[in-house]
Amino acid sequence: MAKPVVVGARGVSGMREIVVPSGPNQCGFHINPYDPGDIAKFVTALLEDEDLRKRCGENARRRVSESFTWKIVAENTLRVYNEVVQ
Fold first, then answer.
1. Strands annotated E in 1-86
2. Which of 45, 47, 52, 58 has its CA 20 to 30 A from that of 78?
3. What does the domain layout of the chain look like in residue ranges?
């Protein structure tokens, strides 16, 4: 849907590996889900900055299309199964 993503990624939990939080491919932010201030900080940043919101959304859409379609997920799952079986 080409929207930026804010995910709870405290420690090693959450969707840390899915959301790119900085750099040219940034698609959102990692936040501490137990810290209301952290949540507010990054949601507010997106709400106040239309260019950031648009750029993150476009990057998120591209990331999903390139890495997380059902076809790609199925191919990766089969690859892992085949590696384990061998």
1. 5-8, 28-31
2. 58
3. 5-85
pLDDT digits (tens, 9 = 90+) for 54-68: 999 999 999 999 999
The token pair that represents 27 in the structure block: 């698609």
| Distance, CA of 68 to CA of 7 (rounded, Å) | 16
Residue 5, by phi and psi: left (phi above 0), alpha (psi -120 to 50) or beta?
A: beta
Query: How far apart are the C-alpha atoms of 33 and 22, rounded to whole Å?
Result: 18
State how far the Cα of 25 lies from the Cα of 22, in Å rounded to an integer. Answer: 7
pLDDT digits (tens, 9 = 90+) for 19-52: 999 999 999 999 998 999 999 999 999 999 999 9
